[in-house]
Write a structure and sequence with these properties.
This protein is an alpha+beta fold. Helix content is about 20%, strand content about 35%. It is built from three helices and eight strands. The two termini are about 25 Å apart. The mean pLDDT is about 90.
Length: about 130
């Protein structure tokens, strides 16, 4: 099977989809124009900011909160999937955190690999906590 990026431009054939799902253990959701403007909010790092976000949505509009499609990601994060009426942009970072490190050696945090960059205070990596996927 070719990489998933091919399917950002074209849908799989019915036979391809049937073959994939016959023995799959994980699936990928493609967002953007190919999926009729499906967009997803991706909460990374064990979804540490998901609960505060969800509480704000539920306080503002309980009905909307109850209708959201929410799934757990492979890295123990959360995905919130929804469809937009307007075309969606590509990915947009919504929340990040800088992490100070002692060296330039790559580190793995919550299953993701980061290569630190030199900064005025030593070395740092930027962790994306929330981003859209479109």
């Amino acid at each position: 099977m070719p990489g998933w990026k091919t399917y950002q431009k074209r849908l799989p054939t019915p036979k391809q989809a049937q073959t994939w799902f016959a023995d799959s253990q994980a699936i990928c959701i493609l967002t953007g124009s190919i999926s009729a403007n499906l967009e997803m909010i991706d909460f990374d790092h064990v979804a540490e900011l998901f609960e505060p976000w969800y509480a704000m949505v539920a306080a503002e509009d309980p009905q909307l909160a109850s209708m959201l499609v929410i799934e757990r990601s492979q890295s123990a994060g959360k995905h919130v999937v929804y469809r937009c009426q307007e075309p969606v942009e590509g990915n947009r970072k919504l929340a990040q955190r800088k992490l100070q490190l002692c060296s330039s050696e790559p580190v793995v945090i919550d299953g993701k690999r980061y290569v630190p960059r030199e900064s005025s205070q030593g070395f740092e990596a930027t962790l994306t906590l929330i981003e859209t996927r479109g």
